[in-house]
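Tutorial, part two.
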Amino acid sequence: MRLKVLTVDDSKAVRIIVKKAFATYDVDILEAANGVEGLAVAGKENPDIVLLDVTMPVMDGVEMLTKMKADPQLKNLPVIMLTAEAGRENVMKIAKIGIRDYIVKPFKEEVLVEKTGRIIDLRPAGDSNKVQKKMTDACEILVVEDKPAIVEQIKVGLKDTPWRIHHVTSAAETIDFCTKTFPDVIVISLSLPDEAAISTFRMLRSNVKTKYIPVFGLAVKTATDEQHQAQQAGFTSIITKPIDFQELQSKIAKAINLDTSQRYFSYVDDFLVIRLPKSISHIIINEVSSYLKQKISAAVDSGYYKVIIDVQEVEHAEMEFIHLIHDTIKVCRDLTLAHALVGSKKLSDECKGFEEAKEWNFVLSIEEAKKMPSRT
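Running the prediction step on this input gives:
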């Protein structure tokens, strides 16, 4: 459910500024031009927070606040008071009636958002029309690490992606970077001195603009205390050193909801091709499995009549691999879609050693698979 922010101010310009400040957040802005209107809107809409000007015609902010505190329905609503510089002392008196904070006019939008975000859980606005990012899209990855060699390893390990790797060494630099460039993911070394990793994480989570950025902790595999502390603090995930870059890519993709299907699924002529890489890990098995029904069903819906399962690069037939191919063939058969297996003779011979794969027939090339009669 969207949050409701009620702005009560006789200045239309201020109300416009408030609407603009929260434009990128999942909130509805309610407006009133004076205390009388504000009480009516508050009673009807039950907002999550009230931004209340002090000086207004008809009924000013002090009177409205007093009436709110006397109303059982409204007395617990959090209020941020807006005042001119000259009214600062007056606000301190008003604070005794009951406000959560105050802002001096003129104010910056980010100050309003920050103070509001301390009181209610502001979330970025969802966009139902937003196109899901793919693995081929650029992403900003911020690495907080005081060891340049580790940063260089990450850059080399992710060089095959279009992701941009940025490097800072401290909490202050991290916050400064985030004010200028919004990272998609932050990776923080858990071995930073003086528990800086935890304090940096808490600073990020206390800032309304950065509180939902996925944050990974980076630690030596044997540093279990550091890992446990990060997990307790609420880090999104832990990456251990030496870094498994296939795992890192997968975790980043999952954290920011990247579509990784194009790694394995593509259309060639009139065929859906499922192509598996040389090394098959449980991460790849899980990724491919998560897309199987969706992608094969979409192929049927789009008029494609055959799936080509290309495993030419796969070196060994392990049990997880056998189960994945078995599941793929089953989905094809359930949807009455023809399929063909492309792989080496060595892999074909290895598959014969598994009960589920004894009847599988492989061809040696994609072109040969295309020419095979369509059968399920």
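Residues 35 and 64 are 5 Å apart (CA to CA). In part three we will examine how such features are distributed along the chain.
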